[in-house]
Model the fold of this input.
Amino acid sequence: MSVAKAAHSGLDNPGVSAVAAKGWLAANKWLLARRLCQVLVVAVFLTGPLWGVWIAKGNLASSLTFGILPLTDPLMVLQALLAGHVMTVSALVGAAIVLGVYLLVGGRMYCSWVCPVNAVTDLAHWLRTRLGIEKGLPLNRNTRLWVLGGVLAASAATGTIAWELANPVTMLHRGLVTGSILTFGSAALVTLAVFLFDLGVVQRGWCTHLCPVGAFYGLLGRAAVLRVSAVNRSACDDCMDCFAVCPERHVIAPALRGAAKGVGPVIMSHDCTNCGRCIDVCSKTVFRFDTRFHNVPSDAPSARVA
Amino acid sequence: MAKHHKTGGDAVDHNRRAVLAGTVKGACTVGLIGALLAIPARRRAEAVALRPPGAVAETDFLAACVRCGLCVKDCPYDTLKLSDMGDGPTIGTPFFNARKVPCEMCETIPCVAACPTGALDKGLKDIKNAKMGVAVLVGQESCLNFLGLRCDVCYRVCPRIGEAITLELSHNARTAKHAFFIPTVHSAKCTGCGKCERACVLDEAAIKVLPQALATGQLGKHYRLGWEEKRRAGGSLVEPSPEVQVRGMEGVEMTPGGTYKLDKRPDGGFKEFKP
Done:
């Protein structure tokens, strides 16, 4: 690959200078952790059918881990409620646990650490950059909120859990854990559709602009404690690598460039997926994971807050 | 393509990249529309797949089932499957095909126990009360028992033998000396497990389990069966009116029970029915 020989970093080759400064492993550690997590989310469901070691049963819609821990997608519970069905205790407890966790760590961590579609759209984006495909059709990122509204309205109107007719998240995960992805059924086709949409139609189209599941989890993340902080923002050399890798570019600037306006260094937008890729690609170690409580605006160049 | 990457401001190279990008974009759009169309296009009309035991009514089912597959995982006989396109039921929901693998009617009903959402109703405590569907002997022209033979397999394998399926005897006019043993399903007792459909010896099962709505009729709610009402009440609910004259055929005497007393003529005919 001739990629590495590009001396500068920038939008085409983000992360090159970080690799040079920190080494390959340190410049990819959160990405690797994230991929590992995504693989585990599938693997824990596969150990049972493949080797008889049951860890988790079910799928991302609803699951039971070690026979005791129920987890249920709260968006499903909400849709069912609008459709006129109150779920039984097990699902309600499961949804409460999921809600609790994501309220703490940020709803969109579901997107970047758990959702299998993320790997697909990340691949599409990577390929898009490699092929030099420009932005594509413009689409407002708030479209996803309207899609979410439409999904909830459809659930109420039809008396069904409406989004499950099309949901690529659960379809792909179901396909992976049941093996039905190999039959070129709905899981494969829906995943292919999302991939092609992101590759050739809209840049970061699905996850950043349309997915109502992501929009729902984003709303959950408004009060999240765990955040990425541009704690060392005074060291920023404007290389733009973090912007290049960020799936939700608008979340960075307020924190990174906020020193002059008296805005704290913590990324407070609920759109941030806490993927940590900005931490990886920054050669100046500007970012790190922090909590929302360390959002002190005054940062002297050398003194790290908290 | 990486070869051409950043080789200076080469206009040709730039052009080539733009063409490549345009081609990829076009191909993606074609593929996207193709993939999206392929999903509904591959839907087939076969829609008689059966739901697991305890499934709430189909309209409520789609409001409750999150398609997690926990019922499928806990089914010890691999009866249950999650639907994909072409299977009939809404994608991702559990169903079974009785001809392939019927429900073994586990006493503990593990599928219902596993359901986290209430799509499978935990109120079902006795599997004998399950209503997965109703068996119907649709293939009367090919059923061996209907042909006068003694197959009886559906009757024999029925977990509720003698209750859900009985053999009803009738005269076989073809041989004039044998009986038909007609397998007869009693919908109130049939759980829809599908063991009869599975076991039917024909190439295409003569007895099939259908969803309840397809399998049974429904009397109007105001209908009353006079003889049932009479039996329940222990006697006729209406007094015979003395004013109403029972009119018989001319010249034929009516007995008080309402039957005609016909006098046979010596030539074998009846005197009223002279041609």
Summary: Chain A is about 50% helix and 5% strand.
